[in-house]
Amino acid sequence: MATASGIVQGGQVNDDLGNNPYGLRNGEVSSGTSLVAIPFQGGVVLGADSRTSMGSYVAGRFSDKIVQVCDHIWCLRSGSAADTQALTDYVKYYISQYVGESGRQPQVSTVAHLMKTLIYNNPSLSAGIIVGGYDHVDGGSVYNVLMGGTCLKLPFAIGGSGSLFVYGLMDSEFREDMTESEAKALCQKALSHAIARDGSSGGLVRTVVVTESGCKRDVLLGNQLPFGPSIP
């Protein structure tokens, strides 16, 4: 039987690095993942796979790694599921206070820098977050907040273990000022490639399209992915 800290063998938990390669604490789950966020004309599309893993053990097949922070800003989570859930809950709380006191919606950069501050000031957190959304200052924009607290505004953002397999694809096919349909298609294509190549990514592809008029969520099932093993 698998645990968050190793494999139970004869009633004993084997904690060597082979069974716990990420040094997880008791109760933590590492969400090996693939994340993609792409701005387009008038908004941004964010997407993620749905597999949650503990090393080579798949703990969940249909996890939701896309979290809404406020009306037009969403986050993609990678790292320890426990850490990223707590982190996004804190940020949602702080942002709700900000909206209540100021009477206006935050910029995407505000949420990203709040994430950065919390991650930087808590170095024990295992959390990498992509923040994306729409505001009236920058339009659609994405920020990659890395483990350790680095915060980068990027033309597009990819993250998680599956990102290693799609850097070349994104560099080749991404261009600025894409349409909504083009950005969504590229997001789904990149995630499908990552799922096919990365053992810690899998399941289905969830996406959310964020524009000034609102948000639209969508799901692409595993047998509908535009790349991967053929389904009879």
Main traits of this protein?
single chain; 232 residues; Glutamine Phosphoribosylpyrophosphate, subunit 1, domain 1; disordered N terminus
Describe this structure in words.
With 232 residues, the protein is of the alpha+beta class. The protein is 26% helix and 34% strand. It has one domain (2-6, 28-224): Aminohydrolase, N-terminal nucleophile (Ntn) domain (Glutamine Phosphoribosylpyrophosphate, subunit 1, domain 1). It is built from four helices and 16 strands. The strands form four sheets. Strands 4, 9, 10, 11, 12 and 13 form a six-stranded antiparallel beta sheet that branches. Strands 14-5-6-15-16 form a five-stranded antiparallel beta sheet, covered by helices on one side. It has a three-stranded antiparallel beta sheet with strand order 1-2-3, with no helix packed on it. The chain is globular and about 50 Å long. The chain starts with a strand and ends in a 12-residue tail after the last strand. Residues 1-17 have low confidence and may be disordered.
Brief description of this entry?
Helix content is 26%, strand content 34%. The protein has helices at residues 81-102, 108-121, 167-173, 180-197, and strands at 2-3, 6-9, 12-14, 30-31, 35-40, 43-48, 52-54, 57-60, 66-70, 73-80, 127-135, 139-145, 151-154, 157-159, 205-211, 214-220. 45% of the residues are buried.
List the helices and strands and how they pair.
Layout: E1 2-3, E2 6-9, E3 12-14, E4 30-31, E5 35-40, E6 43-48, E7 52-54, E8 57-60, E9 66-70, E10 73-80, H1 81-102, H2 108-121, E11 127-135, E12 139-145, E13 151-154, E14 157-159, H3 167-173, H4 180-197, E15 205-211, E16 214-220
